[in-house]
Design goal:
Helix content: 25-40%
CATH topology: TIM Barrel
Strand order of the largest sheet: 1-4-5-6-7-8-9-10
Number of helices: 9
Structural class: alpha/beta
CATH architecture: Alpha-Beta Barrel
Largest sheet: 8 strands, mixed
Oligomer: single chain
Number of strands: 10
Length: about 290
């Protein structure tokens, strides 16, 4: 099995077999992301190489691999025929396979279209992890996401309609202090229209080598403190009306929230209100000088 460049996977794929299908990210312009900024450049691995690695993994782990994740940053950008081929082959050689997942940005999902998404579902693709980040167009433009809210909503709806599970990521605090209310309101509005299976919360934490860190140093972006993040979180959760599983399964978050909405909304808000009574110094540092 061969790997090139950074290999990242969602926390929910911790037990998954990782077989690299693409290298890098074809967009690679998001101001908050440091994963692929230093390369390598985006490329798609040949299908025959991916199949060789799948076969090598079967020799090591046997046919009972249950979950499989195809890195890297935007594997949905593969040609549909090629992605279908590796999904079908994985299903063929791993008889116990229950889930195949990839990362995919909304703009590349939108380009795929509903027909190709249905083909991928038929080939065995089970779930797409999508970094929506925000439903606010001003924020999306600032962070150079490469997509607007309308496109994200349409792409998300297409995934759900295809039968592929949709796991959407939201970055708390990514709008800074001046867009916190808009971020909560517009993100909830988008989620309610998309109706994803999973909503996963991340808290913005600046990373070395990212453009947004320079904005913080230059004071053109003002981060939210722990209490402000928690208030934004409550505002978001209070506005989500679509049924779905919400979780904050990431080290960046100040508190753990997990449960199905709307059933678990009240306990989540109660947990946030309890956390708001804590002194801000009791939380992890939200920003350390020249981190």
């Amino acid at each position: 099995m061969r790997y090139e460049g950074p290999i990242y996977r969602p926390p929910s794929e911790a037990d998954s077999l990782l077989i690299q299908a693409t290298v890098g990210c074809p967009h690679n312009k998001c101001t908050f992301c440091m994963v692929y900024k230093k390369g390598p450049r985006f490329k798609i691995r040949p299908v025959y190489e991916i199949k060789e690695d799948l076969l090598a993994a079967r020799e090591v782990y046997g046919p009972d691999v249950r979950t499989l994740f195809f890195p890297a940053g935007n594997t949905i950008a593969m040609k549909t025929d090629d992605l279908c081929a590796i999904c079908s082959y994985a299903r063929e050689i791993f008889s116990g396979l229950q889930r195949i997942t990839v990362y995919g940005s909304s703009q590349y999902i939108f380009k795929k279209g509903a027909k190709d998404l249905r083909r991928l579902a038929a080939a065995g693709l089970s779930r797409i992890h999508v970094g929506m980040e925000s439903g606010d167009d001003i924020i999306l433009k600032r962070i150079r996401k490469g997509s607007n809210c309308a496109e994200q909503i349409e792409a998300g709806k297409m995934v759900c309609a295809s039968g592929i599970e949709l796991s959407i990521y939201v970055i708390l605090g990514i709008g800074g202090q001046d867009r916190t209310q808009a971020h909560a309101m517009e993100t909830a509005r988008a989620l309610n229209q998309i109706r994803p299976d999973f909503m996963r919360l991340r808290t913005f934490l600046p990373k070395v080598g990212t453009p947004i860190l320079e904005e913080i140093r230059n004071k053109t972006f003002t981060m939210l403190g722990p209490h402000e993040i928690l208030t934004e979180t409550a505002s978001l959760i209070e506005r989500i009306t679509t049924p779905g599983y919400l979780t904050s399964d990431h080290y960046t978050n100040y508190i753990n929230l997990e449960g199905r909405l709307p059933d678990n909304r009240e306990p989540m808000i109660k947990a946030i209100n309890t956390a708001l009574k804590r002194d801000e110094d009791s939380f992890r540092p939200f920003y350390i000088g020249d981190c």
